[in-house]
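>> Question from a student workshop board

For tomorrow's exercise we were told to take the sequence and the ligand below, predict the bound structure, and bring the output to class. My setup keeps failing. Could a helper post the expected result so I can at least see what it should look like? The ligand is iron/sulfur cluster.
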Amino acid sequence: MKPKLAFYWCASCGGCEVAILDLNEALLDLVEKADIVFWPCAMDFKRSDVEKMGDNHIDFSFINGAIRTSEDVEMADLLRKKSKHVVAFGSCSCFGGIPGLANLSSKKEMLERIYDTESTEERAVFPSVKFEFDGEILTLPEFLDEAKPLEEVIKVDYFIPGCPPQTEQTLEALDSLLNGRSDKKVFASAKSVCEECPRQKEDKKLSTIKRIYEIQDDGRCLLEQGIPCLGPATAGGCGARCVKANYPCTGCNGPTQEAIDQGARMIASLASALGIEDEEKMEEKKVDELIDEIIDPVGTFYKFSLPKSILKKRWRDLDKSKTIGGRS
Ligand code: SF4
Ligand code: SF4
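>> Workshop helper replied:
Here is what the output should look like for this input. Compare the format with yours to find the bug.
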């Protein structure tokens, strides 16, 4: 009997769904080898279809997107119950991803920013959770206090990071999982992006931090040219394709296996490139000036991993009153 697959999206931009379609002809091979029993983005499946399935009916459920609403939690719980294995697909699902940057604001601040702005015609009219439609009282999903990685609400068996995951990563994972060679838990390289990067490294110290449009790219390591490139802190497997296209790595594949915290690891690499290890030899004012040159430090160092960072956990510890979807 063919293995059964499900694909579902939570708080997602849709890019991870497109990444499945980007398998192109390989998608035809996939449907030869497996039955897709739930994929609401592509076909008309309903939640009730999953509810009717027996427990462990699905072999692998691929869930993309962060957990952002009570409906995301319910669907994650339901798919966990109905699946033998759950795969976090994409960096939003693995680490909280870009939706996780919203965790810098409270739910109240976000709703006010959306529904009570200078450009809003009817100010401060917030959506109601319950409303009447066709004589029926309907309830909207609750917007949670924070965006979270999938692993914080259900047990996850496998992780395929990337924003979205590269076709090669997805094919490798599908091949391993469908053929029972699932010794790998994380489908990313054990090496960093730097180890896949062809740019020349001279181990020179930086004197200033720049933005990409400010340099005349000379082909050397972008970090050594002053650009905060997250290659040292980011898991490879992507073939360093952004850097090869002359754009710095922004860290979408998540932390390397040794890096507990991607941002902290990158800050350490940047400090080293700035010569801050020899801080005593630099004037304090100069160190401060260099650090101040980084525009949007959280968006730079934690663009894809803020909800999973130590920084985030620390922030939550400081605010014990915060609960997420009724789960602390
Ligand atoms: S990981 Fe990237 S492509 Fe996938 S849903 Fe999140 S933002 Fe979109
Ligand atoms: S920091 Fe960026 S440019 Fe430099 S080697 Fe690493 S990936 Fe390449």
